[in-house]
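ARCHIVE RECORD
Type: protein–small molecule complex
Small molecule: adenosine-5'-diphosphate
Source of inputs: curated submission
Record status: active
Notes field left blank by submitter.
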Amino acid sequence: MSIKFEQVTKRYQAGPVVNDVTLDIATGEFFVLLGPSGSGKSTLLRALAGLTDIQHGRILLGGRDVTHVPARERGVGFVFQHYALFRHMTVAENIEFALRVRGVRAAARRKRSTELLKLVALEGFGQRKPAQLSGGQQQRVAVARALAHEPAVLVLDEPFGALDAKIRVELRDTVREVQRRLGTTTILVTHDQEEAFTLADRIGVMHMGRLLETGTPQRLYRQPTTRFVATFLGAANLLLAQRTAEGLRFGHELAVPFEYLAALPGHRDEVVAVVRPEDVEVAESAERLAHRAFTHGHVHSSGFAGSFERLVVQAAPDSGLRTAIGHEGPGEAPLRVEVLRTAAESATLPLAPGKRVVLGLRRFHVLPTPISGVVLCASDAARREALRGDALVQQLVGSMKARVIDADDDGVALASAGTLAVAGREPPAPASAGSGLRVVPGDADAVLRLARALGHGGAVLALPPGTQLPSRALLLCTSDGARPATLGVLASVMRHLPVEATYVTVQLPTAPRAEVTASFRRLLDARAELQAAHGLDVRTEVHIGDVDGWIVGLLAAEDAPLLVLGTEATAAELAGLLAGPLRPLFQAGARLPLLLALAAARPAASAAPASALAGDYG
Ligand code: ADP
Ligand code: MG
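STRUCTURE (tokenized, with ligand):
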């Protein structure tokens, strides 16, 4: 039976713990949910089973809306982490329990429990009490019990969590086999990445209540969309690279002379490259590499990990290599690259700490994120510190693990230790603040100055003093042309803030009918576009009135939302917006954070498909 979550939101006082989750699971599919503790996995499953209600959205089973159907009538079998067997009943009675409450006759019950015990490889254990079974056996009984009433959907919430490694593997195989044989649509929650990769047809990764990404294990590992998923599913080096006319540049090295990279507009764009440890090649000199060198340094440490060797290579200061994670500036930790070598590779070239090496790139992946880091723009150190300490900035930086760069009022990066100039070489796009999110104190002049400096294309976050972490984000685009870039920025932010996001159009009450229709269509388009391009869902709302009044209303609200404004306006038009409808945002006492997404004038800039940025060569 198919499962469909449509914009499911579950909220407690503190905010959404499941936030606009939209997900389709096909009949017979084995879907694995991964995510850190507290990300909302159990809550989502409990909502599916009908064990908790939801505040927004719908849940469909086999096309039937079950949002308000009681748990017992949903046909969902549930296995929890703790066996939760009835201690006083025998194994057979436990399995038959769901049938007995449904009035199934004794003979039929006995037949079913015998079949199920066979299915989970516990034939002959029916008359034992749970206490006479091992943990792994008890969990098998729990699986059999969940299957007794032939649920169309089986839900397992960390079912192997409390078991030791060997038994986990056995039980995992049993579950997979039973699932295949019965064709039961299954969702399993685990925190074990290997388990997820082994079992899943498809994986979904949750973070802060949002379903960040879904895809086959291969896809999520090779081509993640977000930093979070890139680092959550296995080890990854996240490096900053410059997209230049010649190709992709890591520090001073031109690593990937891709033709298609040259064809892309926006030279010198800063991107975040995901490099898996097993995709780094090590040699004593560049000539011995099968691939082009992307950096050099020395071996910092090496460790034995069974059939693999883990090397940590410290990049040389003159390599210009930069990380996409952490803080840039004096006192910055040296940049280290993680490498994984097979035993055969280590035997061919043993490497002790201190050894000088060059690194080549077998494969890499460029994240499609429009935000490469966070740039705090204030010449005055005290104001910069205030920005750094802002709740919204802390949340974004912490969750994105984004690089933070200190810059002056004009957004020019302050001198940093990580980018030494090397004689005779072109510096890596000047300690550039790159395509980072510019953060400024909440004043209109600062916003305008930066918008001019960015030359349209980028994002500026204006923070009035003392803003609180918003629980809502409202998005407004001043034109359709601004939408793709704005949705990109919104998606980046949505993944890292526990906000409920709404796409808004503003409609004058006197608007002619055609305009009203167009306005509704815009909302549907925006939602579809966000889903297609970023896998995220957003709510939609038409505000009847004008923009000025809408903004004044927001300022008066008890909980100040984050306002995301997308515009492709020229500098003059932007100045008009800042002096007009946006003006109240910058007045004393206002505490509404504004995220301005500036759409690049060249439409092609945002048209590069994410797949064109993935590198898999050699
Ligand atoms: P996971 O299964 O991913 O670890 P959960 O779905 O159990 O996460 O919890 C998600 C969030 O919801 C957590 O922050 C948790 O504290 C919160 N939460 C769960 N149940 C309740 C509740 N009854 N009241 C308030 N908050 C809750
Ligand atoms: Mg849980």
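CURATOR ANNOTATION: The longest helix spans residues 513-534.
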